[in-house]
């Protein structure tokens, strides 16, 4: 069995490295080893599986289409699920749920929701740290 594991590790191409994925609202980051050639979608899937396996709260679900992976130091744009994780050049990431839009017949309500949800995850994060600051 030991020889099999060694052969398996030798056949892996590319560099492997440890990454940290922080989930908004969770107690701490998830850390695991990835291959630099893995797709961002695969990394997100692995992070969601580890998160669920560890029994973390809040419960997130497992649908990749409901989440975005960010690199906090590179800006507010989410990473493309089709790029490789090694192409980003960092090891710390943030996993966020995509904003939910509510469907309504009242157009005023819809515009208010879209304006409210148009901020970045950084704005939401800072607002959640300082609940006394309001957007009025």
UniProtKB/TrEMBL annotation:
Q: Which InterPro entries match?
A: At4g22758-like, DUF7054
Basic and acidic residues: which segments have biased composition?
A: 99-109
Region (Disordered) residue spans? 99-119
Q: Which residues form the DUF7054 domain?
A: 14-96
Q: What is this protein called?
A: DUF7054 domain-containing protein
